[in-house]
Fold:
Amino acid sequence: MKIKILLTISTLLLLCSACRSQSNTGTPTVLETNTPPTINSTSTNTTDGVIKISTTTSEPSFTPSPEQPTITPSPTLEIQPVDATCIENSNVRSWPGKGGDNLGGLIFGNPVKVLARNISGVWYLIGYENSPMRRGWVRSSAIYLRGYADLLPIAIEDQNHNLSFLAPTRWTIFGTPLPLPTLSGGTTLTSATISQSADVRVCPTISCMIIAYLHPGDKIILNGKEGQNEWARFIYPSGPDGVGWIASNFASPEPGAFSDLPSYDELGNLITPEPPTSTPDPNMSPTPTTTATSTQAGPLAEITGPTSVYSLQSSLSSVIGTLQTGDKINITSESLNHIWFEVQYPANTTGRGFISTKYIRKLGDFRYLHYTDSNGTPVPTP
Structure:
């Protein structure tokens, strides 16, 4: 009798074990996927220096959808600091220029977090705890960036130290680039011949993305310029909007090739010239007009290099003229950030213009020169 009871108990235990084993079969990932994932956004530097942002999605849905989900880009540009190292003792300034206030310095070997670059890429915006704004500007030549400068956001800082950011232009050519167009007889287009291997960029600064290369002997059709002809815009079918940019010193243009070409700023945007002043009809009665206030003459200065005269304190404003090396001009005021001089310029309707301070050699007494804001309005001396 005891033996039968033991056998019965053993049989029941075996049956329970089999049931337990059978209940554990199935897909273990079902339990795993029912656990909501953690929303997390991280920035990592890959071995090739490219900054990648990895973001997990919100709680998943297990209901099948007949359409693929659409990824909507965020309207806010997220700034991801990039690791870098100081390779040259350098000052940290409040503004991207030598006229900015000295906030402190970096020494060789200091680790740096780079946040953005200025339009030209000559200055980097970095995190800097010793600054009241917790940031500062340092020359890019003093920084070794563990990444690509052309992927950095573009920082624009106004007179009140308010920052705005622009996403850099990015472009990828898949496969073999389209052939360069050729000039036909009787055309009025301007051409140039590549004199040495040249990088093709998406905009006219050394920090703009390189998308292709040109070789000596290649012929290009020019359709724009930047600055004092430092950069040439040309027809490039595989580029954004069918154009590309190269440094002008890599090409041999035709004589006077740049004279009639439209001008573009450092972002590649067309600079619209100011409309010409119409000539009044001498047979008509003159219409009363507002006379431009003459700008009071200031200390004399000499131009040390060819420079553009702008309508405002910005290289993105309209170019109203040019000055050449050796020209003498009167300085009427200085910008608060010490980057711009207001000059007496009768060719403009306002009687004034703005030039960069780096092209000036002072000849007169600048001690009593007053300051102006970004609109050219006089302000108290800081």
Observations:
- Residues 190-264 form a domain with the SH3 type barrels. fold (CATH 2.30.30.40).
